Automatic annotation (TrEMBL):
Pfam families recorded: PGK
Binding site for substrate: D21, F22, N23, R36, H59, L60, G61, R62, R118, R151
InterPro entries the UniProt entry points to: Phosphoglycerate_kinase, Phosphoglycerate_kinase_CS, Phosphoglycerate_kinase_N, Phosphoglycerate_kinase_sf
Record's protein name: Phosphoglycerate kinase
Family the entry assigns: Belongs to the phosphoglycerate kinase family.
Subunit structure: Monomer.
Primary location recorded for the protein, binned into one broad class: cytoplasm
Record keywords, A-Z: ATP-binding, Cytoplasm, Glycolysis, Kinase, Nucleotide-binding, Transferase
Taxonomic lineage of the native organism: Bacteria, Bacillati, Bacillota, Bacilli, Bacillales
Gene Ontology MF annotations: phosphoglycerate kinase activity
Localization terms from the record: Cytoplasm
Entry keyword Kinase: yes
EC identifiers of the protein: 2.7.2.3
Pathway entry: Carbohydrate degradation; glycolysis; pyruvate from D-glyceraldehyde 3-phosphate: step 2/5
Length: 394
């Protein structure tokens, strides 16, 4: 990476404004998945060990410039304190007199977690005044929030204009792993794209066709491709206005010699529930009043074979509605295939694929689980991430 990192600067005694992505899922005030907090620990520990005074800043959810009590960061501060085994001071603001006082009292190695930066309307607008207020608190800016690096906000981009600005260790690792995967991939290189949002993934599929040997399509977005082949998809998820694009992709794959894999059979159900009647049918026989909710057995076999023969696999989006056991087989089979292939480097991106791998107890068998959903997709599309561009060059 050509950007400076925390390792390239002197941190002793410096006040560091460190942007992290603590946008963790919460239910009834409890954190339900702390992956992102764990992922930020190496940088936080490094900063404290180097004698920095650490101000952590994050967003949580989408409060849209308002104070929303359920989106305060207090539960995160508590969890972080437990994980680090040391005090984490939580302020109720992200700048202003209360924060200034906390900074003034901070000792080397001390940690303050600021309030949710999205409580301020200026954050998402990348308001220069707010960026200056954040910058005025610190001597150095560290961005470790890979998951939010595709956002040009006051705490991810604007602030970097006012302070020495470097990446954290998580940011560095994410960029290195994803960058290597895309620039100099081990082959066969396979991308697996599933999930529900066709529109969000159109650009990434297009971009990946220039890079991969195999492109595997699964999940809800697969039905737009099945339709593009001329078959009826019944009540399955379909983006009618993307059918022509899907056709163009299959043509492009042919021209580029990319092995483009679409389901040949699917599991259809007469209801969106665990008790639904289900059957596996060929893609030419999807009943008009049934819905495709997983890939079928022949398809699983075919996909698993390709995955096991691959040296590098990037996976974004589940193969079916894995949250419901009856429709989880395809996603589980893909996760198992990756887990059983020690020679295959596996990169998991996107919140749902990561959640699926976690649910099947296979997270530690994957080579890299990205903390970025949208950010990893935009990176794979070849887009520049504003939160990275803003950092100082080496
Ligand atoms: N055949 C299907 N029909 C309807 N929904 C499906 C189907 N297959 C998968 N899904 C749903 O797609 C959702 C995930 O889609 P999405 O595109 O958001 O994936 P992702 O990229 O992993 O997640 P993120 O948005 O966090 O990056 C899951 O909730 C899953 O149930
Ligand atoms: O969860 C994410 O992908 C990041 O934290 C960014 O959140 P956002 O999509 O609300 O900007």
């Amino acid at each position: 990476m050509n950007k400076k990192s925390v390792r390239d600067i002197d941190l002793k005694g410096k006040v560091v404004f460190c942007r992290v992505d603590f946008n963790v899922p919460m239910k009834d005030g409890e954190i339900t998945d702390e992956t992102r907090i764990n992922a930020a620990l190496p940088t936080i520990k490094y900063l404290t060990e180097q004698g920095a005074k650490v101000l952590l800043a994050s967003h949580l959810g989408r409060p849209k410039g308002q104070v929303v009590d359920e989106l305060r960061l207090d539960p995160v501060a508590q969890r972080l304190s437990d994980l680090l085994g040391k005090e984490v001071i939580k302020t109720d603001e992200a700048y202003g007199p209360e924060v200034e006082k906390a900074v003034a009292n901070l000792e080397e190695g001390g940690i303050v977690l600021l309030e949710n930066v999205r409580f301020y309307p200026g954050e998402e607008k990348n308001d220069p005044e707010l960026a200056e207020k954040f910058a005025a608190l610190a001597d150095v800016y560290v961005n470790d929030a890979f998951g939010a690096a595709h956002r040009a906000h006051a705490s991810t981009e604007g602030i970097a204009k006012h302070l020495p600005a470097v990446s954290g260790l998580l940011m560095e690792k994410e960029l290195e792993v994803l960058g290597k995967a895309l620039s100099n991939p081990d082959r066969p290189f396979t991308a697996i794209i599933g999930g529900a949002k066709v529109k969000d993934k159109i650009d990434v599929i297009d971009n990946l066709l220039d890079k991969v040997d195999n492109l595997i399509i699964g999940g809800g977005l697969g039905y737009t491709f099945i339709k593009a082949l001329g078959y009826d998809v019944g009540k399955s998820l379909l983006e009618e206005d993307k059918v022509e694009t899907a056709k163009a992709f299959m043509q492009k794959a042919k021209e580029k010699g990319v092995n483009f894999l679409i389901a040949e059979d699917v599991l259809v159900a007469d209801d969106f529930s665990n008790d639904a009647n289900t059957k596996v049918v060929g893609i030419d026989s999807i009943p008009s009043d049934w819905e495709g909710l997983d890939i079928g057995t022949k398809t699983i076999e075919k996909y698993v074979k390709v995955i096991k023969e691959s040296k590098l696999v990037i996976w974004n989006g589940p193969m079916g509605v894995f949250e419901i056991d009856a429709f989880a087989n395809g996603t589980r089979a893909v996760a198992n295939a990756l887990a059983e292939s020690p020679d295959t480097y596996s990169v998991i991106g996107g919140g749902d694929s990561a959640a699926a791998v976690e649910k099947f107890g296979l997270a530690d068998k994957m080579s890299h689980i990205s903390t970025g959903g949208g950010a990893s997709l935009e990176f794979m599309e070849g887009k520049e991430l504003p939160g990275v561009v803003a950092l100082n060059d080496k």
